[in-house]
From TrEMBL, chains A, B:
GO cellular component: cytosol
Name assigned to this protein: N5-carboxyaminoimidazole ribonucleotide synthase
Binding site for ATP: 109, 149, 154-160, 184-187, 192, 215, 272-273
Pathway this chain belongs to: Purine metabolism; IMP biosynthesis via de novo pathway; 5-amino-1-(5-phospho-D-ribosyl)imidazole-4-carboxylate from 5-amino-1-(5-phospho-D-ribosyl)imidazole (N5-CAIR route): step 1/2
Catalytic activity: 5-amino-1-(5-phospho-beta-D-ribosyl)imidazole + hydrogencarbonate + ATP = 5-carboxyamino-1-(5-phospho-D-ribosyl)imidazole + ADP + phosphate + 2 H(+)
InterPro entries: ATP-grasp, ATP-grasp_carboxylate-amine, ATP_grasp_subdomain_1, PreATP-grasp_dom_sf, PurK, PurK_C, PurT/PurK_preATP-grasp, Rudment_hybrid_motif
Subunit structure: Homodimer.
GO biological process: 'de novo' IMP biosynthetic process
Biological source species: Roseibium alexandrii (strain DSM 17067 / NCIMB 14079 / DFL-11)
Alphabetically ordered keywords of this record: ATP-binding, Ligase, Nucleotide-binding, Purine biosynthesis
Origin organism lineage: Bacteria, Pseudomonadati, Pseudomonadota, Alphaproteobacteria, Hyphomicrobiales
Function summary: Catalyzes the ATP-dependent conversion of 5-aminoimidazole ribonucleotide (AIR) and HCO(3)- to N5-carboxyaminoimidazole ribonucleotide (N5-CAIR).
Segments traversing the membrane: none
Family, similarity comment: Belongs to the PurK/PurT family.
Amino acid sequence: MSASIRLQPGDTIGILGGGQLGRMLAQSAASMGLKTHIFCPEQNSPAFDVSAQNTIAAYEDTAALAAFADAVSVVTYEFENVPGPTAQHLASKVPVRPGVRALEVSQDRLFEKEFLKKSGVAIADFAEITSQADVETAVQNFGGQGVLKTRRFGYDGKGQTMIRSKKDIGGAFERIGNTPAVLEALIGFDCEVSVIVARDLDGNCESYDIARNHHENHILKTSTVPAGVSEQTQTAARKMAERIVSSLDYVGVMGVEMFLVRDGDTEKLLVNEIAPRVHNSGHWTQDACLTSQFDQHIRAVAGWPLGSADRHSDAVMENLIGRDAEDWHAVLKDPAAQMHLYGKAEIRDGRKMGHVNRISPKTG
Amino acid sequence: MSASIRLQPGDTIGILGGGQLGRMLAQSAASMGLKTHIFCPEQNSPAFDVSAQNTIAAYEDTAALAAFADAVSVVTYEFENVPGPTAQHLASKVPVRPGVRALEVSQDRLFEKEFLKKSGVAIADFAEITSQADVETAVQNFGGQGVLKTRRFGYDGKGQTMIRSKKDIGGAFERIGNTPAVLEALIGFDCEVSVIVARDLDGNCESYDIARNHHENHILKTSTVPAGVSEQTQTAARKMAERIVSSLDYVGVMGVEMFLVRDGDTEKLLVNEIAPRVHNSGHWTQDACLTSQFDQHIRAVAGWPLGSADRHSDAVMENLIGRDAEDWHAVLKDPAAQMHLYGKAEIRDGRKMGHVNRISPKTG
């Protein structure tokens, strides 16, 4: 394998994961004349309908992985929990972009925080936790409050517990399953924002306008652009995101979640989490920018130059979660809305079924 | 079958034809949670990579057509030369949209012109031609000039011959193969423009801003929006297009090509040709409008409400024809350009390999 390989139209990108992100990546690849090959264990995955080839196999199936590596020019992934040995095995045969290091860092909250701190971006205070005693010490150091999160496999609010007062401390480590964790200082933040940043094989970066995110039940509900923050904050957020991807020698799109903390007239940003992939809070780019985050990721992993991340319209992205998807006809009737559905047959509570981008003329 | 059937997300649209238009229709359908089933005779068709199902069979294969009709909720097509019996056979089993009548009219230049005239839109003078003697009479009536075109199977300048002076008259009927034809009066037009119009199952119409088209070697090279015509001409063009689709009780997107004739300060429009399908001169809508022509056609044939045809940016669409596609890397380096490639393996002279949309802030 060559780390610097660049694809030609007609070449194939392998994608680990067949959910909605894999599906939208496959659609972007096809628009630019590239083929995709999806590898995932689930039958009837959303991405299968829009990709040229599929392999249904376990991520631990080394024979299937070897055949997959032979069939593609480069491998990318739609989720950060790709098992380490899977990524290592593939990386020995074919370039894996964004890369194995990005997976290692983002799969473990402790590694992630240590990496971010070392990169020089601001983050909330944190402490490594391996016991209930650690929880008690750390909470005391952080002013009696904090969020306890498992180091691995947490998402959409799973694997975490909030400590707001003394009564939340007892049994906290048990509540998250007595598993290695970190305690984060509780931040009195104004809102959560995110930056979608892309970096190409030559080290060039393009970052999108920052989005203001609103969650319901720990799941992203809306992303709004413009985010209503100062120009300085916008610039600072982009710089932080670009610093992070450059520190990782990253190739592809990354979602960087940040807390916006207001102190009087000043705005401060703390990086909360990074996702080494296209990100739900960047779905608005599909309809408000010439180059969407999916196009951008495909360009980067193909070894191609990035497109412009400029925005031509204002946008509000709304996730269609669970039974929200039953309102599809109302969405279609809204002339400002573009409906995106993921082709999932069964509606389940909390399941991301699709999203809507509502577009209006650019104001800022 | 029910003529008024409306699809649900997850339902399947059958598409006759697996070229780039079928491919881009399939991509739009997938974005809105619909599946597609491509029917076409050619192996390795561009649309196969992005559709859930494919049937490779001749358009005359009634058994294959019957199985196809059973597998889909509605049928549409990417080209107007669907054989009449194929369309009739399918229409007896499943709704065919835009419809059999639209095919009949657009497959035959004489029927098309008679229909347009009856609809009350302005067209160039024409005469039915069945012999060389007819050519001679008609040319005389039209001031010694004209364009002789076969009634059927003409496209991209094929099946036509220009009569500019006396010397072109002799042998003209033979040059187009002694086949039934029409002679059109030669129009001293300023430019060719086109309107992409959509009509839904309830009769609502949405038309896009008109595009100015430039051809090279009888093949569309660029479409530019705004077209640089007066507001009245813009309105007149939309009205003509909407009149045409309403006259046909049409469901779907139609491309209407018109000649713009300037007489001093006044602009006059003559309809040249209609295409009962998404149209090459509407590809700019993918990147300059919230709802592309492909989305719009899918919405219409699904029995869904139309999206807004509003334009958020200026656009120049350029076709990548034949070896133009070798310049793909230069296209990628232009930050204002969005590259669309059709996944065709082999470059051939005159073959449409892809297109580029170059986008800029809206000026008019």
